[in-house]
Design goal:
The structure is a single chain. By secondary structure, the protein is an alpha/beta fold. Helices cover about 35% and strands about 25% of the residues. Strand 6 (about 80-85) and strand 7 (about 85) form a beta hairpin. Helix 3 packs across helix 6.
Length: about 240
């Protein structure tokens, strides 16, 4: 299997990220829709695609049709009970979004320590792994989801599009909303640190996702920023297949 002909595709709730297996984890491209991605791939030398899909069935169907028409192998990754030395805590693994699973697989490829992987996007997911065991996790609204929900549920609270570079106290309503939501999402980092510190002497909190920059500025945390853990997880699946 030629790495420069294997594509790793992560279809999320807001955009599609992809890169070639031969590229580094930082060389990720973005497409707004599956149609844009398929158009870009129309003349590309693709032999196989590894797909993580949490968006919708329509995106997966369109990619399947494209692959069938172009003699491209498509491997859709689903959440298993165990793989890559990690055992899932879910009784029904199918209820866990595959992006969470792949982020854990990607993180486990970077450290042997107990860790929390915090994936910040439309939602923020937190998953804990130690000694190859998924201990469980949390799901909470992402920064922008939280802001929109707050404004939608109140009559006199408004927001603007500014994202604070650091946590501070707001001095008008819009700034207070932004700072309050930032405080809430950064609270996940503090809580994850406390959860791990109560159980382990040494550990990592690994932040990833489109809004990871909102989390990595938290002071006093054991932080490692990872650009694209979901795609890193897909890469481990593709690399394993090449040696099987």
């Amino acid at each position: 299997m030629q790495a420069d002909k294997v594509l790793l595709v992560d279809t999320g709730n807001t955009c599609i990220k992809y890169r070639w297996l031969s590229d580094t984890s930082e060389q990720v491209q973005v497409a707004d829709t599956i149609d844009v991605l398929v158009n870009r791939l129309s003349n590309a030398p693709v032999s196989k695609i590894y797909l993580s899909n949490v968006a919708n069935d329509d995106a997966e169907t369109k990619l399947q049709l494209f692959c069938q028409s172009n003699n491209i192998a498509l491997q859709v990754i689903t959440t298993p009970h165990s793989a890559f030395g990690i055992t899932n805590s879910y009784t029904n693994p199918n209820k866990m979004g595959v992006d969470r699973w792949l982020a854990m697989v990607g993180a486990a490829g970077k450290t042997a320590l107990p860790f929390a992987v915090i994936d910040a996007g439309t939602a923020i997911t937190v998953d804990f792994v130690a000694g190859g065991q998924h201990l469980g996790g949390w799901i909470l609204p992402g920064y922008h989801t939280m802001k929109n929900a707050l404004v939608g549920a109140t009559k006199r609270v408004t927001q603007d599009k500014q994202v604070p570079p650091r946590l501070d106290a707001g001095t008008d309503t819009e700034e207070c909303v932004a700072m309050g939501c930032l405080a809430a999402v950064q609270g996940a980092v503090f809580a994850a640190n406390r959860y791990l510190a109560e159980r382990f002497d040494d550990y990592l909190v690994i932040c990833t996702g489109g809004d990871k920059n909102l989390l990595t500025s938290v002071q006093g945390s054991v932080n490692l920023s990872a650009a694209n853990l979901v795609i890193d997880g897909l890469a481990r699946y593709a690399e394993k297949a090449s040696f099987d």
